[in-house]
Fold this sequence. Notes:
single chain, 5 helices, 5-stranded antiparallel sheet, 6-stranded antiparallel sheet, alpha+beta
Amino acid sequence: GQTLLLLVVATLTLQHSATAYESESSGSIRMARPDCPDKCGSVSIPYPFGTGKGCFQEPFDVTCNATGPYLASTRVRILDINLAMGEIRVLNPHIAWECNYTNGTNSSGSDGLTLDPFHKLSNTKNKLISIGCATLGLILGATKGKNQLEFPIVNTCFSFCTDASSVDDSKECIGMGCCQTPFPGNISSFNTGSAPLPSLYNSTNQSFSPCSYSFVTEEDWFKFDRSYVSSTNFATKYTDGVPLVLDWVVGNKSCSEATKMGSQYACQAKNSQCINVSNGPGYRCNCSQGYEGNPYLQGGCQG
C-alpha cells in the first residue's frame, strides 16, 4: 500500500514538474528582437515585424500609437500577426458605396489598397462582398506574372432583390440582397466598386434600398443581415474598417534560392525550415517539427 502511494505521489510530482517546465519554456521564448518591444497595446509584434529602429526587417515596420499598431507600408491597423501561418489580420477601411435617393441626389465613394511586395491579399481567407438590390460589385486587382509585369484581375458578383420580402433572411450571402465571390491569388493591390444596374434598378427597389456597398473582407467574419440592404450608413458604421487577411513572405525568392543566401537567409533559427508559399512568389519560415518559437531569430526555435 505504501509502495503504491509513493508511486502515485511520484507520478503527480513528475506531471507537475513537466507542466511547470512546459509553461516556463513556452513563456520564456522571446518573439521580438532583444531590447525591442514585443507588444503594442494588446497585440503581439513578433520579429520580422517590429516597432522602433533596429527592431524590424524591411518592410515590416510597425507604427505604434495610442490607438494601436499600424503597418507602416500601407497604414492599415493591425489586429493580429501569425508567424506560423504567414498571415496578418488588418482593418480594411476601403468600402465602396453608391447611394441614389428618390429626391434626385446621389453620392458615391470607392477606394483601394496598395500593398508592398511582401504582402498579398489572401485568396483563401477573404471574399468580395456586395450588398444591395440590382447591384454589381467588383474587385479590380493587380498581380505580377513570371516576368514581373503587372496585369489586371477582375471578378464580380450580382446581388438582386425587388422589395423587402425578397431579401434572403437566412443570414447567408447567396444573391438575394447580398452576394459574394472569391478571387485569384497573387494580388498585390486592389480597388472595389459598387453600382446599380440601370436596366434592373427601378423606383420600387430604389425607395427600399437606395445604397449599395462592396468590400473585401475576411470570409469567416462577415455575417449578412437583411437590414444592411436598406441601410444608408453601412459604410460609416465601419469607418475604422472591416477585418482583412493578408499573406506575407519574408523574401521573394524560392526556398532553393533563399537557402543559398548565407546571412541574408531569413530562417535564422537552427531548428527551422523554409516554406514555399502558394500565394505568389516568396518564402517564409517555420520552426521544425517538435520545436516552437520564432524561426526568424537566432536560437528562436526551442524544443
